[in-house]
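Input set for joint prediction.
Command: fold jointly, output C-alpha cells.
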Amino acid sequence: MLLLIGRRLGSMIAVMIVVSALIFLALEAQPGDVATKVLGPYSSEDQRAIWMAENGYDDSLPVRYFRWFGDFLVGDFGESTRFKTAVSDVLWPRLWNTTILAAATMGLVIPISLILGVLAGMREGSRTDRSISVASIVTTSVPEIASAPMLSFVFVFLLGILPGTSSFQNGFSIAELVLPTMVLVLYDFGYVTRMTRASMAEVMTTHYIRTAVLKGLPYKRVIVKHALRNALIAPFTVVMLQINWLLSGVIVTEYYFAYKGFGALLLEGALNQDIFVIEACSMIAVFVAVGTQAISDIGYTFLNPRIRFS
Amino acid sequence: MAGFQSDWDGPVLECKDLSISYYTRAAVIPAVQDFNLVLKKNETIGLVGESGCGKSTVAMAIMRYMGKNGAITGGQVLYKGVDLATLSEEELRQLRGNEIAMVYQEPMASLNPAMKLDRQLMEVPLFHEQVSEQEAFDRAVQMLANVKLPDPERVMASYPHQISGGQQQRVVIAMALLSKPSLLLLDEPTTALDVTVEAGIVELIAELAGTLQTSMIYISHNLGLILETCDRINVMYSGQVVEEGAVVDVFDKMRHPYTQGLFGAIPLPSADKTARPLQAIRGQLPLPHARPPGCYFGPRCDHFQAGRCDAGPISMQPVDDTGHGTRCVKWQEIDWGKLGAGDALLPHTDFGESVLSVNQMKKYYELKDTSIAAMVKGGSSRFVKANESISFLAREAETVAIVGESGCGKSTLAKVLLGLETATEGSVTFQGKDLSQVPVQKRSRNDVKALQMVFQNPFDTLNPSHTVGSQLGRVIRKFGGITDGEAVRRRVLELLDIVKLPSDFYFRRPRQLSGGQKQRVGIARAFAGNPSMVVADEPVSALDVSVAAAVTGLLMDIQRTYRTTLLFISHDLSLVRYLADRVVVMYLGNLVEQGTTEQIFSPPYHPYTEALLSAVPIADTSIEKKRIILEGSLPSVINPPKGCAFHTRCHRKIGDICSSQVPPLVDAGEGHRILCHIPLDEMKAMDPVIVQKDAAE
Amino acid sequence: MSDSAIQIPKRPNILVRILRPLLLIRESWVGMVGLALVFFWVVMALFAPWLAPFPPNALLMPNQPPGTEWIANATHMIGTIPASEYCAAIEGDTSKVNCGTFWLGTDLTGRDVWSRLIWGARQVLIYAPLATFMAYIVGIPMGLWAGYSRGRVDAIFSFISNVILSFPVLVLYVLVIALVGASAVNIVAAVVFASAPGIFRIVRGLAMDLRSREYVFAAETRGEPLSYILFLEILPNARGPLIVDAMLRLGYVIITIGTLGFLGLGLPPPDPDWGKMIAEGRNLLQVFPWTPLFSCLAISSAVLGFNLLADGLREISLRD
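C-alpha cells >
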C-alpha cells in the first residue's frame, strides 16, 4: 500500500519534471525571443543584449533551466510584462478566486450527480433512468461558450435578477458567483452522472447483488450496504479527474464573466505573450491536474479491497 | 404475513404445471413449460439437462427472481402449501434466505467483493431473526466450522478474494444454511471448481442432506453428480421435464430416448473407445421459439414416428407406481436394452515412429519484483516454476493425454510446444528437430503448420469479425502454399466437409454458429495444413454432453484418417480414459505419473492420481468408488511446497521425507513412472479406485 | 471430391451487409434524434452554397431582428453583385428590390445570421471530422501496439500520453495556439496532439483485453506477423467501442473549435465560425440577442446530435 503510494508520487514527480522541461523549452529555448517578448517588439538589439546579460540568458540552456526550476520551487515566477509586477503578486489572489469558484462548482456537482446517477442506475431502463440519462446528455452537449450567453440572457436581461459580470468590483459577492458556477455545473454534472449511473447499473446486475436480494435483505440495505459501496468506487476517480476538466472550463467561464481568476489570467498571459505568466499558470494547472490524478489513483486502491489487500 | 409452519409435514415444495416465459423485443420466449415437481421433506431432487433446458430458470422462479423480462405465465409454485404468487414484497423478503436459500454457480461472483465475510454472513440472522450482533457472530463462526472451513475466525475477517474458490463456495453454503432453511436450491454449485475441490463440496452437500432437516433441489448438467447427491431426478429437455423418477430407476431403466441419448454420450471411466464408442445425439437443441410440434425431441430421435410423435402436446406418462414417468408416447414399444448396440467397435491403431519427444523440459517464469525496495536491493527475483522436468514421448497416430487441475502447468507446456514461449532448460524434439528454444516466428513454415492447436472456448476460438471462409482461407494461404483464390475456396469447402459442416457456412460469421459448430471450425483450422501433431486444449469441456460426444468423435475420426498425433489436454478423466492411449498426470508443474491408459487407471497409483480418479463423478450405478477427499486447496504456483509438491494435500504422506526431499521418479515397469516416495510394492498393493460392482461380487 | 459436389455459396449483397447494421439505429429513439440532428447539419454543410440565402460575409443591413423582410436599394452591393441582380424586382418601383427574409436576423455589421450559421456548419464539419480522424490515425496503431506487446513499448507510449494528458485540455490548446499561431492547419494539429493520447489509452485498453482471446492465440501459433495480428485480428473487434468514442470525441472537438473561436484563437476572420459569432454578439446580448443565441443553439444542437448518436449506438451495441 505504502509502496503503491510511493510509486504514484514518484511517477507524478517524473511527469512534473518532464512537463516543466517541455514548457521551458517551448517558451525559453531562444533567449532572443524571450528578450523581445519581455522588452517589446520595438526594443533595440542593444537593449535586448543588455537585458539578456543582466538576467543570465547568456548561460547555457541546462543552467538556465535548473535556475528557473529552482526559482520556481521557492515561488519566484519572474516579472509579468503585462501587469508590471511580480507574477506571484497577481497569481495567488487569482488562484484563490478560482479555488472559490471550483469549490462552489464541485460542491454542487458531486452531490447532484451522485444522487441522480444512483437513482438512474438503480433501476436501469425505468422512466427515472431515461429522464436523467437524456437530461445529462443534453446538458453535457451545451458547452460553456453556449450556456454562458444563454444563461446570462435569461437571468441578467430577461429576469434581471443576477449581475452579468463577476469581477467582484465591490468586494466578494455571492450573487456574482452564481452565474459562473451555474455554467460550470451545468456542463460538468452530466458526465459524472452518467459515469455513476453506468457504474451503479453494472453493480445492480452482478451476482452478489442477487445473493443479497435472495438472502432476504430489505431493498434499502441491498442498495446502501451492498450496491453503493461498489458502485461509488468508479465515480470517485471520475470526480477527481473532473478537476482537470474544470480547469479548462474555468478559462472560458472566467473570461466570459470577467471573473478575476486563474483561467482568465492564463488566457490573458497567452494572448499577450507574457512568458512568465504563461509558465507559472501552466505549471500550476498541470500540477493540480497531476496531483488530483495521483489522489484519484491512490483513493481507488484504497477504496477497492481487492487491490488494498493483495 | 404468511406464517410458514416449521413442523409442516406435507411436501415442502410443489410446482404445478409451472410455465415461465421471457419477454424480449422480438417475441415471448417460453423458457419452461408444464413443470411439475413434488419435493418431500428431507428429499433431494436433481434437475439435469443441457444448457438452455430451463433448469436454472425453475430455481429463479421458485425464488421469484426473474428480472424485468421474465414472468410466470401459468401454474403455481406452492411452498409448504402456500402459493408464492400471493406473497407481498415483504413476505417474499421474509421467505428468501430464511425459508428458501440458494447456492450459486460462481462463488467468487456471488460474494460482495467490498465487504468482509463476517458482515455478509451475520446479515442473515440479523435480518431474519433479529438476534444480537454477538449471537449472529457466534452462529456464523459455528456454521463456518460446520461446513469444515479451517480457522473460521480468520475467514470471518477476510474479504472474498482472500480465500480460495472452494472455500468461497463453503462460505456461500454456510450463508445459505445460517437461517436453517427448509429448502435449499443448489444451482451448479461445483461447476466452476476443480475436480478434487468439487469432490469435497459434493461430499459436504451429501453429508448436510443427511444431517439437516432440509430438502434440496440440485441443479446440474452432470449426471454423475446427481447420482452422488440426489434421491430423485428430473431430466429436462428444451423447457420440459422429459423423464422423472427415483435416481436408480432413471439411471438403470430409462424410458425416454433423450435420457438414453444422454447416457450414451457420456464417457465412463470404466470404458475406453474400443469397448464402448460414444454416441452423440444428432441434430441440435431447438431454439425456444422454434420448437417442433409434439415431442420436442422428435427431430433428433431414432424412434420418431410421424403422425404420432408430432401429433400434439405429449403429457407425462407413468411408467410404474413409484413416480417414474416419461414424456414419450412410444415408451412401451421401444427396445430399451439395445443401448449402443449395432455400432462397429473401433479397431486399435498401430502407432508409428516417435513424433514428439520432450526431455527434462523446464519452464520458469521470472517474477519481476518491481517494488522500489527490490530495485534498491538489486534484483532478487523469484521464479514461477510452471513446468519442472517434464519428459514424455508421443508417437505417430497416438493420443497422449495431459491431465491436471488448474495451475498444473498444462497450458504452459502447450505454449512451449507451440513456440509461444521458449523452454528454460531441456529439449523438445519434434520430428527430429529440437524446437525448445525456437519461438514460433523463427520456426520454418513446415514446422509451424505441422504443429497446430485446437482451443478450449468456442466463444473465443474464432474471430467474430471475419467469416468462417475467410478465417480458414487465411490459414490455407499461410500453410498450404495455395494462393489461387479459387483453389483456396475449394480447399475451405473441403475442410468444412471434413468437419461435417454444410458449405453455406462459408459466409457465416461466428455469432451465427452454435458452440459445437464453432469447435468444428476450430478443428478444421487446426487440420488445414495437414499437421503431424495437434494439441487440443480441453476442446470439448465447454460444450454440452451430446455435442461434446460428436466433437470428440469427429476429432478422433480425423486423427485416425490422417494418422495425426494428438496431445489432448483435459481435466476430465472419463474422457481421457475414453480416447487416450497414454496419459501424463501433472500437479503444480510436476509430472507425477505417466504410463499407458491401462497403467494409469489401475494400481500402482500416484496418490494424486488415486484422488483424481476418486473425484470423478460417474453416472453409472454399477460402479463403486473408493472415497478419497483431498484436504486443503491447491497451493500457489508462485510459492509451491518444498519436497514433494503434493505433500500438503496427500492422504498417503509417509513422513518428513515428503516435505523435505523431491521424490524419485519410480519405474513401475513398461514405461509406467510414478513420482513418489512410497515404496513401489506398497503402491502396487493399493486397491483399485473404480470397481464394477458385479465384478466385485 | 468432384467439382459438381462443391457449391460455392453466394455472398450476401455488399450493400445489405453494410446497411443492415445501420438500420439498427432505428431501435433507439435517442439514436434516431441524434442521427436526425447530425443529418441536418451535414446537409446544411454539404449544400451551403444553395441553402444559404445570402453570401455569408456580405454586409446587408445591421441589427435586423429575425423575420425581417429586406427591401433593398437596387444599387446595394451584396458581396460583389448588385442587389438588382440578386433579388426579386418589385413591381412599380425599380429603385427597390425584395431580397427575401432574414430568418434569424442580421448581426452588428449587417450579415445574415442564418447564412453565416450554414457556412459555419461547413467549417465545423470539415475541420472537426478531419482532426478527429487524424487523431485516430495516430492513436490507434500506438494503442494497439502498446496494448498487445506490453513491456517497454507500452511503458514509453504510456508515459508520453500521460505527460500530454496531464495538461488540462484547454490549457494545452491555448498554449499550443498561442505559441504557433491560429490557422486551420495549426488547429487541426493541436486537436490531433491533444486527442491522440486519449485515443491511445482507449485502444490500448481494448487491445489488452483482446490479446488474450484464443483467436489471437491461434494467429500467434500460425506465426502471423505483428501487423496482421494488430490490424486484422484485434482492431476489427475493437470497432464497436471506438465508433461510440469517435462520435463523443467529434462532439468534443466541435466544442473545442468553437471555444477557440470564441477566445479569439480560432480561424482567422472573416469566415464564419460559430464560436466567433458568439463572441462577436455577446457584448450586445441585451439589445440584439439573436446572433449569439442562435449561434449557441447551433453549436449545442450539433454537439447534442453526436452525443445522442453515440448513446444510441452504445445502447444498440449492448443489446446483442
